[in-house]
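for the recovery benchmark. tokens below, seq after
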């Protein structure tokens, strides 16, 4: 969904507009904007795969996927361009499964960065640990 919008009426006739973006797009500054409160969530990383081994050997599962950064910023409208690129980072893939005995798992891949122009940047998670024995 791009640009899910909800409006809230505040005292003194002011209106707050809440927009949610789940895919990358270009944002256009609305007329009359005074401030923007921007929240960016970096994408989570994929979990690591587990170790495969013969019966009666140590076989550990991979680490779980980690969450990305959350960054919030209250910005005066004069600091925001007439348009800003919204980038939504992709979640990281899980580590590939192991099919050979006595082989440690694979790490998951990192999550992608999300941003509102260059004004708000939330980094994605790092790679996640593979299972060993």
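predicted aa per position
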């Amino acid at each position: 969904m791009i640009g899910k919008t909800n409006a809230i009426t505040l005292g003194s006739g002011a209106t707050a507009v809440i927009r949610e973006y789940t895919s990358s797009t270009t944002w256009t500054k609305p007329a009359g904007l005074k401030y923007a409160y921007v929240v960016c969530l970096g994408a989570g990383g994929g979990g690591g795969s587990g170790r495969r081994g013969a019966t009666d050997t140590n076989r550990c599962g991979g680490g779980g996927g980690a969450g990305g950064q959350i960054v919030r910023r209250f910005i005066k409208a004069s600091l925001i361009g007439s348009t800003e690129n919204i980038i939504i980072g992709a979640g990281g893939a899980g580590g590939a499964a192991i099919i050979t005995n006595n082989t440690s798992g694979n790490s998951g891949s990192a999550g992608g960065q999300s941003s509102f122009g260059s004004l708000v940047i939330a980094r994605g998670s790092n790679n996640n640990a593979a299972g060993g024995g």
